[in-house]
Amino acid sequence: MQIETLLGDLHDGAVDLQGAARQLADLIAGSIVRRAAVKQLLEQALAENRLALPQYTSLLAALDGLTMQREATSRRADESADATTLRQAADATTLRQAVDATTLRQAVDPTTLRQATDPTSLRSVVPARAGADNEAAATGPGTWVRARYVLVQMIGSGGMGQVWKAKDSYLERTNDPFPFVAIKMLNANLEQDPDAYVALQRETKKAQELAHPNVVTVHLFDTDSPGSGRAFMSMELLEGECLDVRIRRYPDGDARDKVLPIIIGMAKGLEYAHKRGIVHADFKPGNVFITDAGVPKILDFGIARAAKIAGVNRRADSFDAGTFGGLTLGYASIDMIERQEPHPADDVYALGLVVYELLSGRHAFKGLSAAEARDARLVPARLRGVRRHEWRAIERALAFTRDRRWQNAGEFLRAFEGRSVTAKVLGALAAVLLLLVGGLWYQNWKAQQPSVPFESLSPAQRAEFARDMSDGDQGFQLLDAAGGTNPTEIAAAYCNAYAIHPKNPQAVRGLVRVAEYALPKFNGLSDAAQRRLNLVNLRKTCEEFYGHYGPLVRALGDNGGG
Fold first, then answer.
1. C-alpha pair distances (Å), 22 with each of 27, 55, 59, 94
2. Disulfide-capable partner of 302 in 3, 57, 203, 484 (CB 3.0 to 4.6 Å)?
3. 91 carries an active-site annotation
């Protein structure tokens, strides 16, 4: 095709933007239909990175200008030709899909928006309607949103909306290495539903409150105007996989060591929400994303609700997301099924199920709702390969009665990590014991310190102390020399210093050093009488110190006392 050749020449530099715009003018010849076909091909080239964003923007602007210049003089003829061409849907590679305007304008029965077709879920599901393919074509790769985001690829869809990978032109202008975000847009059939609009806005606001590493980061809520007019929110684009995909990959459960960071991260994310009075209300594997770095991110606070928690003040909101959205029966607590006031313990039940499923590969109650499992008197089978305190935390989280469960994710986390109330009590006792031991040590240390500071001694006393210490040090160096002094004489020099300044650390070290040298030698003597005499003489040399020195006292005891 000519347009493909033109794009190739533009990519290779064989033609500049102005030349490409002129050739486009020749190709469309003022026809709205041909303009639409060319626009779709440009969008496809952008999505496939065969066309740079600035090139796409310039060519699109030129395309709009060329069409508007000729539209006034040829409107009627072109519209007639367009209608004929649309009915024929001539070139599938060019027009892709003919837009059925009458189908897009069909009213959707609002009662169908509240009916759940999935028996395992109460979430609102919008039935497929005629023209859905046309709707997808109207919002497809290359479509601009709010004149800022360019849709690249759909990465998820549901009854309420679609999630797209999109390129943020603002980030691209700053040469950001990763200029992509995720865009969640309401489906076209919900444009006129005020509840859907408000629900998406509330989801954005709640997620923005939760700036936590384990909660997806949401940037803004806005409306695509001018454009489709649909409400949307932008958020960080995550790369990895949903937790439900990971669970299916390990039908017998994943290894404990591998999933511990996931379990702890999920609990921390929910704990952060609970501390701010927010209950997720639809926690399940499909609403947790595991990034390539292994970080769990909690998604979809679409039906999150405010809980009445002591010490947490939240402004009253007339809109209750729980009345718009639904819940997933397999992960909903009995209280949620019975439409009781939301409570963080409801998320704890779902968290327990998800943790059980991660570790075992199966639902704790065979996929039954909490009410069905309770009526059937099911009990979760004990998990293998987990520690006792971990199993106790999971088992209590799965209690059917709310007041028997952990009351929030923080309590679950502390129990799962072994930081339960018992552990706290033991920790407190250990701290008290440490204080007592520390106090006794301090008292003992204090008793061993000099009663008066060394500086309070007179100059003459300090000089005499220094001489005695010097005599002791010199004598100790000569202990093993021929004709040297004996240990008792050296101890006497240190003892003189000790007498001048009782309990002086230097004097004490000197006396201990002599005893540590002498005692092995005395105990090694074969003559018991001589051994005992030497020990007694050493004690008498400095009775005020050696009389209470444990090693010498014990040696004397072993040798008949003294």
1. 9, 14, 10, 20
2. 203
3. no
> Which residue in the list 168, 193, 195, 282 is annotated as catalytic?
282
Q: What is the pTM of this model?
A: 0.52
By C-alpha distance, which of 357, 106, 381 is closest to 249?
Answer: 357
Cβ contact 351:288 at 8 Å: no
Write phi, then psi, for 537 (nearest 5 degrees).
-65, -40
Radius of gyration of the chain (CA): 41
Residue (of 297, 391, 407, 296) closest to 346 by Cα position: 407
CA angle 244, 245, 248 (to 5 degrees): 85
Going by C-beta distance under 8 Å and a sequence separation of 6 or more, which residues neighbour residue 269?
Answer: 210, 212, 213, 214, 215, 296, 297, 298
Q: How many CB atoms are closer than 10 A to CB 222? A: 17
The Cα–Cα gap between 385 and 526 comes to 63
CATH fold of 241-416 reads: Transferase(Phosphotransferase); domain 1 (1.10.510)
* Size (the chain), residues: 562
Residue 162 has pLDDT above 70, yes or no: yes
Give the burial string for 533-549 (b: 16+ CB within 10 Å, else e): ebbebbbebbeebbeeb
Distance of alpha carbon 483 from alpha carbon 500, whole angstroms:
29
Count CB neighbours of 178 within 10 A.
10
Short-list 465, 473, 472, CA closest to 497: 465
DSSP-derived secondary structure letter, 106:
P
Tell me the pLDDT band of 33, cut-offs 50, 70 and 90: low
List b or e across 260-281, with b for residues whose CB sees 16 or more CB atoms inside 10 angstroms.
Answer: bebbebbbbbbbbbbbebbbbb
Do the beta carbons of residue 60 and residue 42 sit within 8 Å? yes
The superfamily (CATH) of domain 104-236 is Phosphorylase Kinase; domain 1 (3.30.200.20)
- Walk across the sheet containing 218-223 and list its strands: 144-145, 149-157, 161-168, 180-186, 231-236, 218-223
Amino acid at 252: D
CB 94 within 8 A of CB 37: yes
How are strands ordered across the β-sheet holding 288-291?
Answer: 240-242, 288-291, 296-298
Percent of the chain scoring above 90 in pLDDT? 41
Sequence-separated (6 or more) residues with CB below 8 Å from residue 386: 256, 359, 394
Q: How far apart are CA 436 and CA 431, in angstroms?
A: 9
What pLDDT was estimated at residue 48?
Answer: 74
Between helix 53-88 and helix 17-28 the angle, nearest 10°, is 10
Note the pLDDT tens digit of each residue in 399-430: 999 999 999 999 999 999 987 555 566 667 87
* Number of Cβ within a 10 Å radius of residue 39: 19
Nearest to 122, CA basis, from 403, 386, 331, 288? 331
What is the overall mean pLDDT for the chain? 78
